[in-house]
């Protein structure tokens, strides 16, 4: 009987030992395997995210290059189609035969050439202003946007107004130019696509952030549309806005107003950013 | 020991592990025979090794634990382990296999190793830290080793002199030791790879000039 008990007790211990150790090992190995798989999953997800970000950067870069090329083509077209013929005409008035003409014809030709050269100067000034608005350079963002809105309002097609609530100190010139370009592009899009009857721009600062809000009553887009267009090959202007906002370390939000009557675009960025500009 | 001297200063954690491996080897080769010969007990060496093992693994795990509260818990549980060792060996003067201290040490180490692995998942934001590195391999080896030996250690107190049990003991112990050592070796290779590469680079650049 004691021998049987010993055998039974011994087999019990062996069973406990076998199943206990097996259970513990299964749990331990299971845990390690779970963590390895989880880590792999996270790495895969991060890599996917990184790839998407790189693709997005590539789209923005392409858009920026395309925009630059289009700008250059516009300037080239302006110079070639307008300034070129004007200067050629002026040259015609001042050709070699002019000395053989009578005084009154000479004076008329010189007067005409002067007129054409004045026109050319004005044309080149316009091109230069479109590249860098002098109001922005000399008087700042508020004046430049006011100027832009006055011109739009002056056309009579749309009611445009703007109001700067908190703009006591000028921002860095590069930042002002980028913000102006963003506002210009947004206004341009509203004029082109929204068919709205008014545009209202407001500026304010809060918690170290600089805000520009645009309201209009036309056809607008929301944030989902903006992101979709940003990822597609269309919407060059929107991509430019996005790449400029990246440089400004800011963001842009497209939404419908709480009243569901107006569309609202909010441009948000840090007031002073030492990292980007 | 030689490895612990040779490995770079920056990999201090690996030094601790190599000392731990050396301690295991030293116990098997020298302490066990001394224990049997001079103290007339086969468990004296294992008791010393349990305490040394706990101290070395705690020193390895402690810097890996990020949260202050967990560190405090670790210190509290460590003091419980030392209290158990003191009670078992000084107050009660247990001459048998010290299953209580071994079990407590295994539980504490397992708990904090698992906590470390989970905190690695939970608080990591950098994908670089998600890669299988030396500390992950060492902690995994610790978890597998202590899980595998947990039951043989806690059952040793009453069954150590049973032949069948001794056989199972040796078999399980040898098996988990092999797994542990393979994982630790992989950890050493993973951690020392950059240093070896650097050495090779400087070596070739020296001769390419």
N-to-C CA distance of chain B: 36 Å
Give the number of helices of chain A. 7
Would you report the number of β strands of chain B? Answer: 0
Helix content of chain A: 55-70%
Enumerate the spans of chain A where pLDDT stays under 50 for 5 or more consecutive residues. none
Low-confidence stretches of chain B: 204-209
Question: Beta-strand percentage of chain A?
Answer: 5-15%
Largest sheet of chain A: 5 strands, mixed
* End-to-end CA span of chain A: 92 Å
The helix/strand class of chain A is alpha+beta
Please describe the topology of this protein.
The complex is a heterodimer of chains A (about 280) and B (about 210).
Chain A: H1 2-93, H2 103-131, H3 134-139, H4 141-154, E1 159-164, H5 173-194, E2 198-206, E3 209-216, H6 223-231, H7 236-247, E4 251-256, E5 263-270
Parallel strand pairs in A: 1-2
Antiparallel strand pairs in A: 2-3, 3-5, 4-5
Chain B: H1 2-6, H2 12-38, H3 44-64, H4 68-91, H5 99-123, H6 134-159, H7 163-208
How does this model look, in words?
The complex is a heterodimer of chains A (277) and B (209). Chain A is α+β, with helices and mostly antiparallel strands and 277 residues long. In chain A, 66% of the residues lie in helices and 13% in strands. In chain A, strand 1 (159-164), helix 5 and strand 2 form a beta-alpha-beta unit. In chain A, helix 1 (2-93) packs across helix 7 (236-247), helix 4 runs parallel beside helix 5 and helix 5 packs antiparallel against helix 7 (236-247). Chain A is elongated, with a radius of gyration of 34 Å. The mean pLDDT of chain A is 85. Chain B has one domain (7-204). Chain B contains 7 helices and no strands. The chains are: A alpha+beta (277), B mainly alpha (209). The interface between A and B is medium-sized, with 23 and 26 residues.
């Amino acid at each position: 009987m004691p021998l049987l008990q010993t055998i039974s007790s011994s087999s019990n211990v062996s069973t406990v030992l076998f199943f206990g150790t097996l259970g513990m090992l299964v749990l331990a190995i299971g845990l390690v395997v779970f963590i390895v798989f989880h880590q792999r999953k996270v790495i895969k997800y991060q890599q996917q995210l990184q790839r998407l970000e790189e693709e997005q950067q590539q789209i923005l870069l392409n858009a920026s290059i395309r925009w630059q090329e289009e700008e250059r083509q516009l300037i080239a077209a302006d110079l070639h189609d307008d300034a070129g013929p004007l200067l050629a005409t002026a040259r015609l008035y001042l050709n070699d035969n002019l000395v053989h003409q009578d005084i009154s014809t000479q004076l008329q030709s010189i007067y005409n050439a002067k007129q054409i050269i004045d026109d050319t100067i004005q044309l080149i000034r316009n091109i230069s202003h479109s590249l860098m608005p002098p109001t922005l350079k000399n008087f700042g963002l508020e004046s430049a946007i006011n100027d832009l809105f006055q011109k739009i309002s002056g056309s009579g097609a749309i009611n445009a107004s703007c109001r700067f609530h908190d703009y006591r100190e000028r921002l860095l010139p590069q930042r002002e130019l980028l913000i102006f370009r963003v506002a210009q592009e947004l206004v341009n899009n509203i004029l082109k696509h929204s068919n709205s009857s008014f545009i209202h721009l407001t500026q304010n600062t809060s918690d170290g952030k600089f805000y520009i809000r645009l309201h209009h009553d036309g056809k607008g887009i929301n944030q989902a549309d903006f992101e979709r267009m940003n990822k597609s090959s269309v919407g060059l202007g929107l991509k430019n806005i996005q790449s400029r906002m990246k440089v400004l370390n800011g963001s842009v939000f497209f939404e419908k107003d709480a009243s569901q009557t107006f569309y609202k675009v909010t441009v948000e960025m840090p007031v002073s950013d030492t990292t980007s500009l | 020991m030689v490895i612990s001297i040779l490995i770079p200063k920056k990999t201090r954690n690996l030094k601790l592990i190599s000392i731990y491996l050396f301690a295991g080897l030293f116990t098997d080769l020298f302490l066990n025979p001394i224990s049997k010969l001079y103290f007339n007990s086969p468990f004296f060496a294992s008791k010393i090794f349990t305490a040394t093992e706990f101290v070395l693994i705690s020193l390895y795990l402690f810097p890996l634990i990020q949260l202050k509260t967990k560190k405090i818990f670790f210190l509290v549980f460590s003091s419980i382990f030392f209290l158990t060792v003191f009670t078992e060996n000084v107050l009660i003067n247990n001459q048998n296999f010290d299953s209580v201290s071994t079990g407590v040490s295994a539980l504490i180490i397992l708990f904090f190793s698992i906590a470390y692995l989970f905190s690695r998942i939970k608080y990591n934001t950098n994908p670089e830290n998600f890669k299988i590195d030396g500390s992950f391999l060492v902690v995994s080896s610790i978890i597998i080793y202590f899980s595998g030996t947990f039951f043989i250690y806690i059952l040793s107190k009453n069954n150590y002199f049973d032949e069948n049990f001794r056989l199972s003991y040796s078999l399980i112990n040898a098996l988990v030791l092999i797994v542990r050592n393979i994982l630790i070796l992989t950890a050493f290779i993973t951690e020392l790879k950059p240093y070896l590469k650097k050495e090779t680079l400087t070596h070739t650049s020296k001769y390419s000039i």
